[in-house]
Design brief:
- This protein is of the alpha+beta class and 283 residues long.
- The chain is 33% helix and 23% strand.
- The protein has 9 helices and 11 strands.
- The strands form 4 sheets. Strands 2-6-7-8 form a 4-stranded mixed sheet. The chain has a 3-stranded antiparallel sheet with strand order 9-10-11. The protein has a two-stranded antiparallel sheet with strand order 1-3.
- Helix 3 packs antiparallel against helix 4 and helix 4 packs across helix 6.
Length: 283
Amino acid sequence: MANRGFDPDPELSEILTKLWELDTNKCYPGDDFQVDLQGYVKSGRHLERDRARYNLFEWVNDEKVFGRKTYKTFKDLLDNYELECGEAEVVTPEEKKENVAFVDAIMETDVMQEAHKYLVSKGKSPEHVGQFKWQLYKIWFSLVRRTRGDRDQDSSSFEHVFVGEGRDDQFIGLHNWIQFYLQEKAGNIDYHGYFRHSTVQDDEHFRLIALQFDWREEKGKPISSCFLGTSPEFEIAAYTICFLLGRLCKTDVQLGEYEVEIDVKPFAKNYIGTAYIAAARMY
C-alpha cells in the first residue's frame, strides 16, 4: 500500500526510470552479492542495541564485481580521503588521475550518455563531452570547507555521499552499498539492523535498504539509506540530474516499480551537500 501523499515528479520519474532500465551494469542478489538482514531497528534518532550478529553482506563476488571498469575505478577513489571533518584534504596527482579515470569510465556507459543527452536538452550541461566531464568533475570532486570556522577544505560532494565522514561522535554521509560492503569487510562498520518499514524487500531483486550502523565503535549512524546493487554510473547520473534541475529537496519519484524519495541538498550553491534515496512505500 502506498504512502498517502506520494506525489511523483513526472519529469524526474521518466528520465530516472529510463536510466534505471539502461543500467545493465547492475549487480544482482544471488549472483553478485548476498545480504543477511537479521533483526530490525525502530529509532532513527539514536543507536539502538545491536540487532544483527553478523555482517549485512554475506558475500560479494569481488572478482566479478570489481572486474567491471566503472566499479574498479570507483573503488580506486574510496581511499583518497581523510575521515574527519576539519582535516584538510590534499589531492595528489595520482588521485587526480583516478578521479579523471572514473569520470572517463562512467561516460562510456549508456546511462551517463543518456543523462548527458537529457541535461543538454534541458540547457543544464554543455554539449561537448569534454566540457560535460569537467562539469561532473567540478560538482563531485571540488574541495569545499564543510567545517564551520575552519579554513581548510575538508570535504567534497563525492566524499560525503559515497565515502562518508566523521564529525565528533557521528558518522555522516556514506550512502553507497559498495563502500558499505568494503568497510564492513575491513571491520570498520558494525551493522546494527535494518528499518523494516523503510526497506524494500518483497520484490524479486532487493534494491533499497534503510539501516543503522556504527563506525569502529566510535561514531554512530542512527539511520542511513542506499541502493543495493546499482552501478556507480547510475547513482552519479541520478543525483547529478536532480542537482542540476534544481530538485534540491526531498522529491517523490516513481523509479520503475519502486516508489522512492530522493533527497539532494546543495552545499555552497555549486556543490552537492548530501544525496540519498529512501523508500516511499511502507510495507
